[in-house]
Design brief:
CATH architecture of the largest domain: Orthogonal Bundle
CATH superfamily of the largest domain: Winged helix-like DNA-binding domain superfamily/Winged helix DNA-binding domain
Low-confidence stretches: none
Strand content: 15-25%
Mean pLDDT: 93
CATH topology of the largest domain: Arc Repressor Mutant, subunit A
CATH class of the largest domain: Mainly Alpha
Shape: globular
Oligomer: single chain
Radius of gyration: 22 Å
Structural class: alpha/beta
Strand order of the largest sheet: 8-9-10-11-13-12
Number of strands: 13
């Protein structure tokens, strides 16, 4: 794998928004490529990391002086570490909108609260997750499905700077435990570590805080606060359920996924692609990869939301619904390489229940593309 910059699909939307906003804010998990992308797009501006204690000290001692170092603006990395700086940026861009500031942050929890107070109406906000299937398509020429899922999508792996067996243990120790512990002042780190692994074991399942509370021996409120911070740190994603105002009894709790299947594989003690191939979680991790890839596509267009799953009281289910106007594209996701007509059942039942809502029906699996069956498209996962 080459040790080079990997072009990002979100770049087009960011470059367009930069023509309309004096501030661009790019959030996402640590190591997803935020600062690399901004430095690539706006390399003419000076770059400062707010993780550097000397720079943080300079900011705190003289924020106006720090921000005046460049007449054109600057790139400021991990700005959640210096939230007070945003008020000064507000004053600068109000006086001179031609000065541009490009900000990154890894904690949506604290950063967005500050932005909504200081930079409302002055910044476009984007979310950058790790690489998408389309972004690795130029690099991924020999990898099997199991290799892709096991590797995950962090740029460090695909640019050749690291490998999964070193990256993910370090990621958990350095970022996940430190950041979340700082946000929540967690006293019992062992319980939290177990909680994260239990979440990984529930990928693709309905999130049940009471169940986790009982298993861990902690309060339901504690579980909910831990989940909120994992969401805000872009470690997990809760896929909301589809439901209508009809009398149909539909699930109203979200499903849990991880924003990276490689990190999830590590948390499940899967230590190689070969091990993954035999693991009972393989299908869940494949589903995780596909759903998060669709989420990346939404974020990379500068949009947000519109993804749901469907489940009713009779057990009828559709893995993913993507809203398009007043209709939905509906997807069934299977890791199998051999198509079976049963794969289409949930899609057809959903269409029977909500015929006016269905725009398209698709089965995504790991086999070859096939002619449509009962009006359902059958495609390989690399085509999504």
């Amino acid at each position: 794998m080459p040790n080079t910059f990997i072009p990002r699909d979100i770049a087009t939307a960011i470059a367009e928004a930069a023509g309309y906003f004096p501030v661009i804010t790019l959030t996402g998990p640590r190591q997803s490529g935020k600062s690399t992308l901004l430095r690539h797009l706006f390399g003419n501006l000076p770059y400062f990391s707010m993780e550097d204690p000397d720079i943080r000290m300079a900011v705190k001692n003289d924020p106006r002086g720090f921000l005046s170092q460049s007449d054109n603006g600057m790139i400021l990395d991990e700005v959640q570490n210096v939230p007070e700086l945003l008020s000064y940026i507000q004053g600068i861009v109000d006086d001179n909108p031609e000065r541009k500031f490009y900000l990154t942050g890894s904690s949506n929890f604290s950063l967005m609260n500050t932005i909504s107070q200081s930079l409302a109406g002055r910044t476009a906000v984007f979310e950058l997750l790790p690489l998408s299937l389309s972004e690795i398509s130029g690099i991924d020429t020999e990898n099997s499905l199991d290799n892709i899922v096991y590797n995950g999508f962090y740029p460090a792996v695909w640019s050749g700077k690291n490998i999964p067996k070193f990256l993910y243990p370090s990621y958990v120790r350095t970022y996940l435990e430190r950041d979340v512990r700082n946000l929540l002042a967690i006293k019992h780190l062992d319980s939290f570590q177990r909680f994260v692994r239990l979440c990984a074991a529930r990928i693709g399942s309905i999130f049940n805080a009471s169940e986790l509370s009982n298993e861990l021996g902690v309060a339901v409120n504690t579980v909910n606060s831990w989940v909120s911070v994992l969401q805000a740190s872009y470690i997990i994603y809760l896929l909301p359920p589809f439901y209508t105002n009809t009398r149909k009894r539909l699930t109203k709790s979200p499903k849990i996924y991880f924003t990276d299947c490689g990190l999830a594989s590590y948390l499940l003690n899967i230590d190689s692609a070969k091990t993954l191939n035999r693991d009972k979680m393989r299908g869940h991790l494949f589903e995780n990869m596909i759903i998060i890839d669709f989420l990346k596509q939404v974020y990379n267009r500068g949009q947000n939301g519109g993804l749901y799953f469907y489940r009713d009281s009779n057990g009828n289910e559709v893995d993913l619904l993507i809203k398009d106007g007043s209709e939905y594209d509906c997807y069934e996701i299977k890791s199998a390489a051999t198509f079976h007509p049963d794969f289409t059942k949930g899609l057809i039942r959903f269409e029977s229940a909500f015929p006016e809502l269905v725009k398209g029906k698709t089965v995504i699996y790991s086999g070859e593309e096939l002619p449509a069956v009962n009006g359902v498209s059958i495609i390989n996962y690399r085509r999504i």
